[in-house]
Specification:
Layout (H helix, E strand, L loop, with lengths): L1 E5 L2 E7 L1 E5 L4 E3 L4 E2 L3 E5 L6 E9 L6 E4 L2 E3 L4 H18 L14 E8 L9 H17 L6 H5 L13 E4 L12 E5 L7 E6 L10 H11 L1 H23 L3 H21 L9 H17 L4 E5 L5 E6 L3 H11 L9 E6 L5
Parallel strand pairs: 8-10
Antiparallel strand pairs: 1-2, 2-7, 3-6, 4-5, 6-11, 7-10, 8-9, 11-12, 13-15, 13-16, 14-15
This protein binds ligand 2P0.
The site of ligand 2P0 has 15 residues, from helix 2 and helix 4.
Length: 349
C-alpha cells in the first residue's frame, strides 16, 4: 500500500490479493476468525486496486462514506469496528505524547471516499482491497503506526492479507479474542519476479451468493469443509510455503489448482449448493489442463474465488503462449474484454 499525508486529509491505495490456499468459513462471525489459515499473493498496486481518501474536519457534522461514488451506510458493523479500533489506537498513542496540546483531529468527524478500478463484488477480492485500504488510510490520517492486519481482518477476513505485499499467510490463530489471527509476509514480491498473474474476467456481474453468507452456510452444512479445514489445509499451507520459498512452480501450480478445486467442491457440498463457476470457467480449467498435458509439466495454474472469473498463474516465459492458446479457444471478437491484464505480484505498502 502507499499513502500521501496532508494535514487532516490522506489518500492511499491498496491492491487486491489472490488466495492460493483459500479461506472459507469462520469460527467467530463477529471478530472474523477463520476455521483455517490461508495464503495469498498480493498483486501489484498499480493494477487492480482500491483508492481511498479520508478527511477530518471540524465542519463535518457526522462520519460519512462513499463507495464508487455512492454514499453507503457508515453504521455497518464492520465499518464501525474498523473506525472504532483505529480511533481507540489513535487515542492511546496520543495520550501522554507531546502532541496532546495541538488541535486534535480525533474530535472531528471523517468523510471517506473509496473507489475500485475493477468490478466490485464480482469475486475479485474487492472487499479485501477495500477494507485494507480503509484501515491503512484511517491509520495514516490519525498517525497510527501499528500492526494493522488485525483491524483489517475485522472489516473483511481476506483484507488482512492485502496489508502486506508479496506472498502472505493469514495465520488462523488459536485465541478467542483474535489477537493471534494475523497476516504475515512469507516472502516479498521481489522473491519471485518471474511469477505472473493473468486475470480473466468472465463476468463482471455481482456474485449470486456473497462470501459472508456463503461461507456461513458451508460451515453449517458441509462435512467436506470441516474435513478440509482440519485434515487438508494445515499440511497444504506448509507445502505451499515451501514451494514459494523454493520458487517451485510445479508444486505451487499443482497446490493452487487443487486448493481452488477443493474450495469449489465444498461449495457444491454446501446445502443448498453454491455454484460460483460457470461453463466458461470450466472451459478455462480444461484449457489449462490440456496446455499442461501437452508440455508434460505444470506451466500454468488456475484459481477461482467466489465467482466465475479466473486468475491464472504462470512464469513470464509462458504468458504469450498461453494467451495465444486462450485466444484460440475464446476468440477476441466474442470475448473482447475477457483479458483484463497481465500483472506481476507487487508490494502492498
Ligand atoms: C479467499 N475468499 O481466501 C477466499 C476464497 C473467497 C474465496 O476470502 O466474510 O470477502 O468478509 O470475511 O473475506 C472472500 O471472503 O469474507 C474470501 P468475509 P471475504 O480469498
Amino acid at each position: 500500500m502507499s499513502g500521501e499525508r496532508r494535514p487532516a486529509a490522506v489518500t492511499c491505495t491498496a491492491p487486491i490479493n489472490i488466495a492460493v490456499i483459500k479461506y472459507w468459513g469462520k469460527r467467530n462471525e463477529e471478530l472474523i476468525l477463520p476455521i483455517n489459515s490461508s495464503l495469498s499473493v498480493t498483486l501489484h498496486q498499480d493494477q487492480l486496486k482500491t483508492t481511498t481518501s479520508a478527511a477530518a474536519s471540524r465542519d463535518f457534522k457526522e462520519d460519512r462514506i462513499w463507495l464508487n461514488g455512492r454514499e453507503e451506510n457508515i453504521n455497518q458493523p464492520r465499518l464501525q469496528s474498523c473506525l472504532r479500533e483505529i480511533r481507540r489506537l489513535a487515542r492511546k498513542r496520543r495520550s501522554g505524547s507531546e502532541e496532546e496540546s495541538t488541535p486534535c483531529i480525533l474530535s472531528y468527524r471523517v468523510h471517506i471516499c473509496s473507489e475500485n478500478n475493477f468490478p466490485t463484488a464480482a469475486g475479485l477480492a474487492s472487499s479485501a482491497a477495500g477494507y485494507a485500504c480503509l484501515v491503512y488510510t484511517l491509520a495514516t490520517l490519525y498517525g497510527v503506526e501499528t500492526e494493522l492486519s488485525e483491524i483489517a481482518r475485522q472489516g473483511s477476513g481476506s483484507a488482512c492479507r492485502s496489508i502486506y505485499g508479496g506472498f502472505v499467510q493469514w495465520l488462523m490463530g488459536e485465541r478467542d479474542d483474535g489477537k493471534d489471527s494475523l497476516a504475515q509476509q512469507i516472502a516479498p514480491e521481489s522473491h519471485w519476479p518471474e511469477l505472473q498473474v493473468l486475470v480473466l474476467v468472465v463476468s463482471a456481474e455481482r456474485k449470486p451468493v456473497g462470501s459472508t453468507a456463503g461461507m456461513q452456510t458451508s460451515v453449517e452444512t458441509s462435512p467436506l469443509l470441516k474435513h478440509r479445514a482440519e485434515a487438508v489445509v494445515p499440511d497444504r499451507v506448509k507445502e505451499m510455503c515451501e514451494a514459494i520459498r523454493q520458487r517451485d512452480f510445479e508444486r505451487f501450480g499443482q497446490l493452487t489448482m487443487k486448493d481452488s478445486n477443493q474450495f469449489h467442491a465444498t461449495c457444491l457440498d454446501t446445502f443448498p449448493p453454491i455454484f460460483y463457476l460457470n461453463d466458461i470457467s470450466r472451459c478455462i480449467i480444461h484449457v489449462v489442463h490440456l496446455f499442461n498435458t501437452y508440455y508434460g509439466q505444470t506451466k500454468v495454474a488456475y484459481t477461482f474465488d467466489a465467482g466465475p472469473n479466473a486468475v491464472i498463474f504462470c512464469l513470464e516465459q509462458t504468458v504469450d503462449e498461453f494467451v495465444s492458446a486462450l485466444r484460440c479457444c475464446f476468440p477476441p471478437e466474442s470475448n473482447g474484454d475477457m483479458f483484463l491484464k497481465g500483472l506481476p505480484a507487487g508490494p502492498a505498502v
